[in-house]
Structures are given as C-alpha cells and as structure tokens.
User: Fold this.
Amino acid sequence: MSERKALIIGAGPAGLTAAFELLKRTDIRPIVLEKSEEIGGISRTVRYKENRMDIGGHRFFSKSDRVMNWWMEVMPVEAQADGNFQITYQRQSRDVAAAKTEGPDPRVEDRVMLVRNRKSRIYFLRQFFDYPIQLSADTLKRLGVARTIRIGLSYMQSAAHQIKPEKSLETFFINRFGKELYRTFFKSYTEKVWGVPCDQISAEWGAQRVKGLSITRALGHFLKKKLGRTAGDISQKSTETSLIERFLYPKYGPGQLWEYVAEDVKAKGGTVTKGWKVHKLFTDGFRITAAEAVNPETGDVQRLEADYFFSTMPIKELMRCLDAPVPASVLEVSDGLQYRDFITVGVLLSKLAIKEDSETGGKLLRDNWIYVQEPDVEVGRMQVFNNWSPYLVGNPDHVWIGLEYFCYETDEIWRKPDAEMIDFATREMEKIGIIHRADVLDACVIRVPKTYPAYFGMYERFEEVKSYISRFENLFLVGRNGMHKYNNQDHSMLTAMTAVDNIIEGRVDKANLWSLNTEMEYHESKDGK
Ligand SMILES: Cc1cc2nc3c(=O)[nH]c(=O)nc-3n(C[C@H](O)[C@H](O)[C@H](O)COP(=O)(O)OP(=O)(O)OC[C@H]3O[C@@H](n4cnc5c(N)ncnc54)[C@H](O)[C@@H]3O)c2cc1C
Assistant:
C-alpha cells in the first residue's frame, strides 16, 4: 500500500499537535507547511536581542488531562524545592513532583516547565485593583463611598431582574456583575480589545471567556483562599478559569515548547517546512486532492497531494483558497468575518516608576500582566515578562515589559513606524505613572495580525460557512483562526487530537470537533466535575 499523507497548514499549536498525534498513533505521514519563518503561531516566543517576548502571555493550564499530560511529556516540570508540589485536576492530585527531587533544575537545564504564580491586577483611577475583583474593604475604599453604593445597588438590581434574552456581551456582564461594576471594570477594557461597544458583541464571547465567573463565585473563592483550601492546587478543575492561581510555563516562553514539538515531529519522520504559504486547495467534489503553496521570498510554487488536510489558517482566507464552486452566500459570510489585530511594544527599562515591596525584597511589581482600564490611554494591557519567567530577560537587573494595543490592520496605529509607536507607548505609560522615559534602555514593536477572531458582524451567520466546509470529508478545520473560535492552546490542541481520533475511527462528520469545549470535561461523563 502506498504511504498515506496529511498536509497540515500552519505550525502553531493546533497544526503541530495534529502532526505529533498522527505520527504517534497512525501510519499517516504529516507534512506541515508554515508561511512564516517561526514556529508556534501566536504561541511563539519572539526573540529580541538577549530578551524574549511572549505575545499576550501564555498560561499553560487546562482542565483537560489529555492536554496537561501532553505538555508535561514534552517538557518535564521543574523540581520543587519545598518537595510539596502537586498538580490537582480532575479530582486527582498528581505527584508530578517526582519533580520533588528528580525534576529538572531550570538553573542548569533548558527543557523544563516552570511553575509560576499567577498575579494580575486592574490599573484604574491610577490605582491597582485585584483581578478577579475581590469585594474586600480595600477595593471598596479605593472605589470611594458613592461608587461603592452604586455598585451594591446595581448588583442587587441585576440579581433581582436578569435581562433576558441575554443577547449581547453588555447584558451578559450586567446580569452577572450589575451595571455599575460592569461600567467600572469591564466596559472600557473590553471595548479597547474589540473596538466596538459591548452591546454589539455576542454574549457567546462572554460564555467562551468569562465563563461562570460571578460575584458570588469570586467571593466564594476569596473565602476558600482565606481558609487555605486551594493551596497547592494548580489547575483546579472546580475553579473558574479566570481564578486559576498557578500555571505551568516553559522556561523560555511558549514557543520553546512548540519548537521542541516541531523537532520531535521531524525526528519521527514528519516534515515541518517554514516559508511556504498555502494559497490554493484543489478539490474533487467534496474532497480536497492537493494544495499549492508559494514561497513569498522567492515566488517559487509547489503542489502537494495528500489524503488528509488540516487547516489552521484563518477560515476567511481558506474559503478563498478553494477551487470549488462555493455558494456566493457562503463566501459573503466568510469574507465578512472580522479579526482584531495586536501590537506589542517591548520596552526594556532599568526600573519601573511604580515600585512595590515583595516578599523577596525586590521592588518589581509581582503581576504577570496588568489590565489597563484607564480610559485616557489606548494601551490595553501591560505584561511584566520578568514575572512570567526570569529567563525571558537577558539581564536580571532590567525590567522587560510588553505594552499591548488592540486594533484593526486598517487603523492608523497599525501603520505607525516603529519609532513613533515606541514614542507613543512611552508617553502613555509616563502619563499614567508607570514608567519614566529616562529609564527606557531599548524597545521594539511586534505586530500580530488576526489574533482575535471576532464574534460580531457576519459571525451571526457563521453556521452557513461551518455547514458548507464540514462537507469536505478529508478536510479538518482545527485551532483558533482555523475554526474562528476565541480559544486557548488547550482547545486548539484538543480539536487537532479529536480530528486524528476521527481519522482513526473513520468518522467523517465534524460535529464533535465543533462542539468541543474545554469547559466540558473532555471524554468524561457529565457529572465528572
Ligand atoms: C493575547 C493573547 C493571549 C493568549 N493567552 C493564552 C494563554 O494564556 N494560554 C493559552 O493556552 N492560550 C492563550 N492564547 C491563545 C493561543 O495563542 C492560541 O489558542 C493558539 O496559538 C492557537 O493555535 P493555532 O495553531 O490554532 O493558531 P496559531 O497560533 O494562529 O497558528 C497558526 C499558524 O498557521 C500559519 N498560517 C496561517 N496561514 C497560513 C497559510 N496560508 N499557509 C501556511 N501557514 C499559515 C500562521 O503563520 C501560524 O503560524 C492567547 C492568545 C492571544 C492572542
């Protein structure tokens, strides 16, 4: 029998997971084509001189055992000095701290997952507020009496009268937090992210991202914490995702893990080729027969035939690659899909203007990231890369931050030359009192298109694209832009794993791929919480 092949578009988490799973569990040989010169997609590590950046900051945690085990097999968890480390999820406490004594030591080894504490706060009214918001006396003091009373009253009002149907993200937030808390802590940041008012964003966004988080749960978590019940628990299944307090993190950022996976794929007989952009898919009825890719540097073109095709490229682009007679109404929807784009300005500093005493005597803020809710600046979030992994920073005495802007590729800010963008970001951070220009040592600008598939505009009719494209038996849409789902790495990976399951089982319908949700226990009974 001739060898079976799978052509995989994109060397991000979904594409590489598909390749790895095919090699592990089938005799199908994966050929991964990546249009850029980098491995890891949005989850790559960007290198800038002796420093490294993580686009958006990638926490590695999942409620799925399958994903957690997969990550830990690729990169073992660091030894825990206190010898008391457990990852607890799916009601199982696992002593991954065979790591207690045997786990690698990140000071001497590179292939190692760190265990990091999560801390993120909201910066608003030139003050820090815990995130998730805690209804502590301190929070209320910072908000002031008048606002606190308004928050309490509007929360009670929402609790008594839920807005139904919950159509928009605005109603989603108001139903859970009340109007005033929504206006204070969610509206400005969310609108910075999406560039449209919350009442024009589908409530599905909230369901996907904010999940079951509510004031009652936040309060419950706070009380539990006070009682010490969540200590030592990393991926707490019973805990809402937004409340997770410890996570795994590759020593050199997320791309390090994906670079290892790409190496493993090659070592096992697969191919991962950078610099090839798939721009055509040839069809025969509802089967894909071949793909054509172009090398943007040289203009060279190659045609590759395969038995299976996995796509992680944006659906909007995929639909335009098909040589099939796609109905005009379907193309109208896919052409109308929207994305939010993303700029990170990396700024290397001798110090921050804002200092805080930490337990270890340092003066650096302990946050991994900070939501900038201040409406008088455009910056949406600030990463403190030192706190993701100290190994991301070349000189440990320096502070390495990422200032994040959400925009459209058509916006003026996207086209600003690097020097202007750096100047703009520096001015904004000075204005809100976080840095002094004089402390800036170096800076760079990274632009990432299509980071957020949007749940508005033509998305309302997305079902039409989904049902059309799902008819192609040997084409598997997986991952974030691949499925136009605002998801994390774990979901992207699970879609790839499930596509491979389907090939093995001979299953041709795609329903189980579209219904995958990492909030549901994967391959578990409904009551398996
Ligand atoms: C700001 C931000 C923060 C995030 N934080 C987290 C987090 O904390 N934890 C977490 O788990 N996840 C997080 N994520 C999500 C995570 O980045 C994605 O879920 C994941 O990278 C999606 O993987 P993917 O393979 O589907 O797509 P991508 O990462 O987008 O990879 C797709 C790849 O396909 C390539 N490609 C596209 N078109 C073509 C073509 N025509 N031909 C060839 N190659 C092509 C691209 O160059 C890219 O390399 C975050 C994302 C963002 C934007």
Summary: The radius of gyration is 23 Å. The chain has a mean pLDDT of 87. Residues 339-453 form a domain with the Polyamine Oxidase; Chain A, domain 2 fold (CATH 3.90.660.20). The longest strand covers residues 440-453.
